[in-house]
Design brief:
About 25% of the residues are buried. This protein has 3 domains: about 100 residues, no CATH class; about 140 residues; about 270 residues, TolB, C-terminal domain (Neuraminidase, 6 Propeller), CATH 2.120.10. The strands form 8 sheets. Strands 7-30-29-28 form a 4-stranded antiparallel beta sheet, with no helix packed on it. A 4-stranded antiparallel beta sheet has the order 8-9-10-11, with no helix packed on it. The protein contains 8 helices and 30 strands. Helix 6 packs antiparallel against helix 7. The protein has about 575 residues and is an alpha+beta fold.
Length: about 575
């Protein structure tokens, strides 16, 4: 083994950082000037020459590469390189003689290492060390692999962010194009009106001019015995026309010449000039589900807000609620086949009619609104909407050949629940695969679905046997959960940070379950809290409110939530 660190020779007070290993064997105290990692020997100037003669292929490091000297040795001090001899019980440190001389002279308890090590090889603590090391190494390997995946994920998030920036810029360009188009249309209308006015004036003046010319020609051609009378009549008519012409000339000359000008919106350019960027770019903390903290909530107080508009004819069945980052809320009204946009005071500010009954809805990361539309017969569609400046806009749709009763989304993966199966689609409507089938009961057995924020878990509720089933992203069942308070068809929602809420309409109850979908954390709201027949729930993390849509009611109910 290498012999390093300071050495003291027979009472000498000379201390070296590193002593020559070969000289130490002869009980000599010589400072080392070289180190051979293959031999793990520290060498003085004399011994290095002998070493190089025997080991011509070894690489020897001098004092200039002293950072490469320290090898891994159990019995050597990491600081001084000397042999470890004692244990300081006060500081719980292994010490060499230099450590004792410099730092532990005043310590009250120092033990000799051979005494401490006696019979240690047979202790359970030592015998369990290999297993403990293997466990830690396994965890380090998993951590390393996770960080390697993080590298890939970081690159993906960079590409996605670039795409989002470009999409945002494209949206701005689209808005500017629309504004330009509207302004040019306004210009064209003005130009058309002015051109018509000038044309009419030109034609009017030309007409009077031609009339005066014709009158004078006829007046000069008058002959016969009634010449004098007819000339008088012509004179009077001509005078009237002259008066009309002069009046027109005076009137038109008073009108200032019109030109077209453009007065720009004074707020536009300063707004863009004052921007430093199109938005903020920052890192976000991703917390895996296994380490995320579940805050347990309880409803304390509620308010009601009407979602009725004049066009509504049927009783309300609110089957979907989603909150946008702006604080606006979108609800799906099934009976009226309508999507409604509410402001942050829960007032209806816009709506969009749907071709048939909405069944469920969700949001994408880019804040597109996805609505599953189905009439139990021949309409099975997924509709895409966007919200821009307080207006709901239709984007596109695709058609499925199976029922569409529920919908969830995560990073381009679209999950659509049919009668008793869960399917994965691409965003352009291509069916990827059936990932889960519920064999619990025939008929319509799937209720609603949702995805965890990291996409690792898919939550599914069921008819027939009301329960929550948690799947991995491949569709394998991870866990099931049921509760005495679940005795009717259920729905659920998952908040942006991963809190899971499941609601039951017949028992008028909202429960919070853990992220693993294994146990109940709390009964969030009951009938005694004012909850009745919930059909859609959304948890707002911006306001810490639970927004509930109900059956046969023209209002939603908003519960204020508090952490327990």
């Amino acid at each position: 083994m290498a012999t390093g660190g300071s050495s003291i020779y027979k009472g000498s007070d000379l201390i070296h950082d590193y002593s020559c290993s070969k000289c130490e064997e002869s009980d000599l105290n010589t400072e080392a000037t070289h180190f051979c990692p293959q031999c793990e020997h520290y060498l003085c100037d004399k011994c290095v020459n002998l070493h190089n003669g025997y080991h011509t292929k070894h690489t020897v490091y001098g004092r200039g590469d002293i950072q490469k000297w320290v090898g891994f040795s159990f019995d050597r001090c990491d600081v001084h390189g000397d042999k470890l001899k004692v244990h300081c019980d006060d500081h719980q440190e292994l010490c060499c003689s230099v450590c004792v001389a410099l730092n532990h002279r005043l310590c009250s308890s120092i033990s000799h290492l051979p005494d401490l090590a006696m019979f240690f090889l047979n202790t359970a603590e030592f015998m369990q060390l290999p297993e403990a090391v293997d466990n830690v190494r396994c965890r380090l390997d998993k951590l390393t692999n996770a960080m390697i995946k993080d590298q890939v994920s970081l690159k993906d998030s960079y590409k996605n962010t670039i795409a989002e920036i470009k999409a945002f810029r494209k949206e701005i360009n689209t808005i500017l194009d629309k504004l330009e188009k509207k302004t040019v249309e306004q210009l064209d209308r003005l130009m058309k009106d002015l051109k018509k006015t000038i044309k009419d004036d030109i034609e009017y003046c030309a007409n009077i001019n031609e009339q005066l010319k014709t009158m004078m020609e006829k007046l000069q051609q008058i002959t016969g015995k009634d010449k004098e009378t007819n000339s008088y009549i012509g004179f009077r008519i001509c005078q009237t026309k002259l008066s009309e012409a002069k009046s027109t000339i005076d009137e038109k000359q008073k009108i200032p010449t019109k030109r077209i000008s453009f007065i720009s919106n004074e707020t536009v350019l300063p707004f863009f000039r004052n921007l430093n960027s199109l938005g903020n770019v920052d890192s976000i903390i991703f917390m895996p589900i296994r380490t995320a903290c579940d805050h347990v909530y309880k409803a304390q107080g509620s308010s009601r807000y009407s979602v009725k508009i004049k066009k509504d004819e049927e009783e309300y069945i609110i089957v979907g609620i989603s909150e946008l980052p702006s604080g606006e809320v979108v609800i799906a009204d099934q009976n009226n086949s309508r999507l409604k946009l509410l402001n942050n005071q829960y007032q209806v500010i816009d709506y969009c009619d749907l071709p048939d009954y909405p069944e469920h809805m969700c949001l994408t990361e880019s804040q597109e609104i996805l609505v599953a539309v189905d009439n139990l017969a021949n309409v099975h569609e997924i509709h895409f909407f966007s919200v821009n400046r307080g207006k709901v806009q239709t984007v596109r749709k695709f058609t499925s050949n199976h029922s569409c009763f529920s919908i969830a989304h995560h990073k381009g993966k679209l999950y659509v629940g049919g009668s008793n199966s869960l399917f994965q689609y691409t965003m352009d409507g291509k069916l990827v695969k059936e990932i889960y089938k519920n064999f619990a009961a025939p008929g319509h057995t799937l209720c609603k679905c949702a995805v965890s924020p990291d996409g690792e878990r898919i939550y599914v509720t069921s008819y027939g046997k009301p329960q929550l089933t948690t799947l991995d992203k491949g569709g394998q069942v991870l866990s099931t959960f049921d509760d005495p308070e679940l005795n009717g068809p259920c729905g659920l929602c998952v908040s942006p940070s991963g809190h899971v809420f499941i609601f039951e309409r017949n028992s008028h109850t909202v429960l919070q379950v853990d992220r693993e979908g294994r146990k109940k954390l709390a009964t969030v709201a009951r009938k005694t809290d004012g909850l009745y027949f919930p059909l859609a729930v959304c948890f707002s993390e911006q306001t810490s409110c639970l927004i509930v849509g109900r059956k046969y009611r023209k209002y939603i109910i908003v519960f204020k939530m508090f952490k327990q």
